[in-house]
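Field reference: sequence -> structure
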Amino acid sequence: MTTLTDPPKESFRLSMLIYDTRYRSLTIQAVAMIGFMLLAAWLINNTMVNLNTLGKQPEFGFLMEPASYDINQRLLEYSSRDTHLRASFLGLLNTLLVALLGCITATIIGVFVGVLRLSKNWIVAKIMTVYVEMFRNVPVLLWIVLAMAILIESLPAPRAFRGETPSATMNLFDTVAVTNRGVYVPEPLFSNSLGNIHLFGTSSMRFDISLDLMLILAVVVASIFGIRAVNAQAKRIQESTGDRPNTLWKNLAIFFVPLIVVLYALGFHLGYPALKGFNFQGGTHLRNSLIALWLALSLYTAAFIAEIVRGGIMAISHGQTEAANALGLRPGKTMRLVILPQALRVIIPPMISNYLNLTKNSSLAIAVGYMDITGTLGGITMNQTGRELECVLMLMACYLIISLSISAVMNWYNNRVKLVER
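Structure field:
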């Protein structure tokens, strides 16, 4: 009888960290990590020594000093006597505003153009191709400056609205004024307002939240949950009986009836802009700098999104279209219900990068005078205080947090819509 014994275990030797494939990757990673940490420590130490030599120890007390400059487009109350911290916060809000508006508009235009590029109409397809190639191959800064120049030079001045026979008139039943100084639109007002909540008592970071807005948002969110419950019930009925009840009117009632009741109780009305003196007063003023930046970033990014959408649609097998046509679906429904839902798993990952690019490209806002986080914290505040290191680090942290937040939200959505294989 032959007895099989286990081979003797090889003892560990230091040479195995280099020559043994089981340990070599760990050795390389450890050496790389140690090298990176040493480099980072040297950079930090060198920076601290140089700052101490110049007498500029890192500190953030400058944020509490008066900013002494104005912010033309803002979402909250602000004056030049406020601190640099509040000015930077308003600049951050302006960055988030243009990023949100740009992502929404670019997505709508990009999907529309991407679908039309595949149109069987030769003229339509070529026009969309010209649009894509034109915007993709010209730097976005030039489009921003061009959009600003067009708004300033082509739109009428406020004085053109004055007189018995003015050369310019207001639009939409005399409620919107489009001028070379910006667009004036009606602002929402409440005669029975619930007031505001003051979150912070300090003047540097005072932040008021409108109870009216919070109530409206709460009603809208509750209505959305109600609509989801109605649709879930309709789906259960369809799965059990094969017949799906019509939920359109019920959903419309759930959404609009509570909202109208709340708006009526709050005394909702609109404040319209009116020409007084040399300019329009009242309403909400959308400055040309915001409109030009929003328009240019949206059209520029939409050209890239259009190519992503076109590639995602072409990645779907043509047999899906043929099967939908065999079932009697029209081309519009085939695209909306069959092709695009499957193409989302191809479209969303590269679209995240375009959302990030749009957000970072908004830092070019200073070219048209739009005061975003780069123009406030990374511009005037840094020049006034001489705190380059602190301002740049805070600016980098802001863009890093915004970018990671966008990536997290889009990756979550991507996991929700991706196809789950059996």
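Note: The mean pLDDT is 87.
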